[in-house]
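Entry for the shared binder. Reason: the reviewer on the internal report wants the predicted structure included alongside the sequence.
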Amino acid sequence: MTEIIYKELSYIISGLLFKVHNNLGRYCREKQYGDALEKLFKEKNVNFEREKELPMEMIDNRYTNKVDFTIDNKILVDLKAKPLILKEDYYQMQKYLQASNYKLGLIVNFRNRYLKPVRVVRLDS
């Protein structure tokens, strides 16, 4: 039997994601979803960082990858607003997880009719 990683925190985050999806609908931009989610995180006293630079390869003295949200130094959240989640999105989250050494990431596509956050667990290499 496998244990669900960060079950309670994931439940709180999912509830806020559904609230944003219900309030804004399917056809906003990623930034609008991020702004609404940030507001809810503040209201609910959820510890987060927005657009955190991850320790990746540097180009021109800057990091090349930022994740939309880090939650409580445990969970990465990557927001999308596009027709489909692709394999590339999953691979990107795996890179984020490897770079940050976090165990869990959520890929959230607000364009879906029914919101289905995708849980991605870090593959240990």
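Summary line for the report: The chain has one domain: 7-121.
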